[in-house]
Amino acid sequence: MKVSKFGGTSLADAEQIKKVCEIVLSDDDRRIVVVSAPGKRSDADTKVTDLLIATAQACLSGGSGTAEMEAVIARYADITDGLGIPEELPAVRAGLEGLLRLDKSNPAKFMDALKAAGEDNTAKVVAAYLTKNGHKARYINPGEAGMRLTDDFGNARLLDESYEQLARLGDTKERIIFPGFFGTTKNGDVVTFPRGGSDITGAILASAVTADVYENFTDVDYVYSVNPRIVSNPTPIYEITYVEMRELSYAGFAVYQEEALLPVFKRGIPVNIRNVNNPACPGTRIVPKRERPTGEHVVGVANDGDFCCIYVSKYLMNREIGFGRRVLQIVEEAGISYDHTPTGVDNMSVVFKQSQLNDASKATITSRLINELGADDVTFDHDLAMITVAGEGMSHSVGIAARAAGALSNALINIEMISQGCSEVSMFFAVRGPDEKNAVRALYDEFFS
């Protein structure tokens, strides 16, 4: 059995949906199909999810949301007309217009109800199209299937009890068309995963039914070793381990929703990332353990910008039990989650996304570090970029760090910070924001050219 998830660009219009259905029907093992909301048809277009968010915002600010909802309905009118099933539009319209009449006293709850409508209606339309063309397909509502989530609107997580209910989907003989991105609370309220959560839905279902493979269809042939917007024609990755993919996703790879690996990781189910516009391409496989040996030590270079670093210095800091913990507690109580904590003998740094920091929290952190911990120096360093080099083969090779540092040096890029964990699966370099792209190119040339 295969669980196959299709992203928004794969379902942006009727022609794309026809491609999706051809792919689904070409393999009898594709029994559970997870769909996203229609994405952009062009760079100037707007995703259906964004249209629904705009509708919710209009309602919550005192408007009717009618004009905004008409833009959503127009997208589905184009799709149903293009698929030759215009008779499906009245039900879609009625459902969407009914959302405008929902209670708005809980804005987050109302927002989630509207956001989920993109995936939900797409699943209904795809199921109707397959059925009209003589194929056994059935739309299934996530709540009715047992997809129970926490009541953290916009940031929900699966309740473990869901797996037993969802496992029953594996016994269904017809193809299941399942909307991604949302489930329901125990009270029956619609609640969504974080943005990009259709990847999570697909992984949960693959885990629940113990699928042989989880296929994730997108608009690229492979996961590439570096951002193709920075390096032209980069090296494709044919096979990558869960651990490597997690490191690269966290560090800026945008191909895969990073939380989505967890359900399939626990079950050891391989993930196959494929291109809906080139289904003959085998794509990239994400596996528990690399099945064929490779001579490459580094599998990818990832980058992410807009970081800030707090530098804390205190003489004999290493003698104070709990000093580091108290620094992190002060950062936590300022509402900041950190990414890295490189340390020295008498200093430590806390690296985090600078969007979490404002002038008030900066002043509070500085004051507390000096007055409560007796820090000698507290400095904030803004506009840093983190460049990550990852690969399980790094742990078996001497000189990777030297090669990386040398490549950056030859490109006249100063390293602000360097860190590598004991697992040696990845190392990261902090550089100035303006040097980000040049640093990526220099590291790519070193390890892949």
How does this model look, in words?
This protein is α/β, with parallel strands linked by helices. The strands form four sheets. The protein has an eight-stranded mixed beta sheet with strand order 3-4-2-1-7-11-12-10, sandwiched between helices. Strands 14-13-15-17-16 form a five-stranded antiparallel beta sheet. Strands 5-6 form a two-stranded antiparallel ribbon. Strand 5 and strand 6 form a beta hairpin. Helix 2 runs antiparallel to helix 3, helix 3 runs antiparallel to helix 4 and helix 9 packs parallel to helix 11. The longest helix has 18 residues. The radius of gyration is 24 Å and the shape is globular. The model has no long low-confidence stretch (mean pLDDT 92).
In short:
This protein has 15 helices and 17 strands. The protein has helices spanning 14-25, 48-60, 66-83, 89-99, 107-115, 117-132, 142-145, 162-166, 198-208, 242-250, 261-267, 323-333, 359-371, 400-410, 436-448, and strands at residues 2-6, 30-35, 137-139, 175-179, 182-184, 190-192, 213-218, 223-224, 236-237, 239-241, 271-275, 284-287, 300-313, 347-353, 377-390, 417-420, 426-432.
